[in-house]
Each structure stands twice: as structure tokens, then as C-alpha cells.
Prior knowledge:
204 residues; 15 strands
Amino acid sequence: MTRKRxxxxxxxxxxxxxxxxxxxxxxDSGSGQGGDDVLLPISINGKEIRVxxxxxxxxxxxxxxxSWVDEDYNRITVxxxxxxxxxxxxxGGSIKVSDNMSFMISxxxxxxxxxxxxxxxxxxxxxxxxxxxxxxxxxxSFDGVPITELTQEKAAEKYPDWTGNExxxxxxxxxxxxxxxxxxxxxxxxxxxxxxTYDVDWNG
Length: 204
């Protein structure tokens, strides 16, 4: 009798342990939950940019105007055939959205030398304060939400696992970093940055 009770208790304890382990192992990385390391895409007029995946050539093929700062600090239209060093990180790129506003971008290369067109977008940043045309802002979305609708309150609701306050909402994962900044009086988004972490030569 005692042995049967002990065996039953052990079975119950094992079952409870398995349930706990199962719950802990569930993937809670859906974009609506702001998981530990989830890629959240950016769109311009329906053209998606996935930081860490989208190449410069993809942007050019979609008709976006991409430029960068050359060695003389002049902004020029990118030459997709220009060769870049391996394992390097390049800053100073931009994607024109309107006469008043551009995305600032950085791009990176992998273990081999590649053309600029094949370089991957590693970081993307946009400051919206300079753009007064609401239709331009409405054409830009963050994780499927038009940035005109992405208030601080909305961001806190959509990404409850992130941290911040009334002027910022942040998530720094092992692979992806998100930095959303808001106007303190209106709560509206006025700047955001998306970045993927790379182990590259920062002297590029």
C-alpha cells in the first residue's frame, strides 16, 4: 500500500515537472510579443527592408534612391559594382524617402569581398521630425504598423517585454537592437533605429 502511494506521488511529481519544462521551452518570439531576438521588418511604400537580410541591390531593384558618402565626404549615388572588403562594416549610406527625409543606413560584408550591391543592410535609422507631409510618413511602417500610428502607448502595448519610458521604448537582444523614440508632448514616433549585431572590422 505504501509503495503504491509513493509510486503515485512520484508519477505526479514527474508529470508536473514535465509540464513546467514544456512551458519554459515554448517559443514566445512572435512579433506581437516582442520576443528575445525577432527580426521586425520596415516598409517604404510596401517595399520591405529586413535588416540583416536585404541587400543594397534589392533596394536599387525596387527603385529606391540609395547614396553614400565617399572618401571626400561627398554624397554620391551608389555604384553597385564597387568592390567592398570582406568582414567590413560601412556607414554613411542613405535611402531617400522625400526631399526632407532619408533613412540613414549602414551595410556589412561577409567572409569574402563582394560588390556594394551584394552588401547587406546592417543598420537603419530614420528621423521623422523634418517631414511635414503626413502622406509620406503614412507610407512607412514598422513591423506592419504605419509609423503615424506607432505611439509610445501603442509600442508599449505591442512590445510588453521591451523597456523604456514616455520618450523611448527599447529592446537590445543578442542579435537585434530596436530603439524607438517619441515626442514627449504628443507621444508620436519621431525617430527609430533597427540594427543587427555583426562581428566585423569596424575600421571599414
